[in-house]
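batch_manifest entry 22 of 60
target: Gluconokinase
source organism: Acidisarcina polymorpha
requested by: lab member K.T.
priority: normal
notes from requester: please return tokens only, no post-processing; we will run our own comparison against the previous entry in this batch. if the run fails, retry once and flag.
--- input ---
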Amino acid sequence: MIVILMGVTGTGKTTVGKLLASRTGWPFAEGDDYHSEANKQKMHAGIPLNDEDRAPWLATLHDVLYGWYQQGKSGILACSALKQAYRDTLSSGIPRDDYRFVLLEVSREHIAERLSHRTNHYMNPGLLDSQFATLEVPSDAIRVSAEGTPEETVALILDQLGLPQGV
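--- output ---
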């Protein structure tokens, strides 16, 4: 099973992903680590990325996911995956039964509060509105409230995936 934790900045994708990985023993990949330096600089400056900026990044993330699939491995990726086209790129060539998108949902107000406490991250909090505007809510994703603690969110995800809590 490949799990792609998706959502706008500040929803807890990284925190939840690392905790989910520790609970399942599956590898975790942080999508932000695969951005080019140019992309990171744009976001830090408060300039939203466009589809052209994202294309090589998404292709690289697809390679990570497809590698897991080819090796028969499970894994967890944290990636915004805001548009359906991005999700299509990420999952290309992987059978639908082998992956799940999990949309972490948090209110804009709660995210703004989280971002105000975030340090050492290149994402400019001013991009939150553009991310919400870009988000195309998927009809086929598992939707999970991430308003609670990371532990509560992971428990919800494991339940939705049909996996035991003590994996």
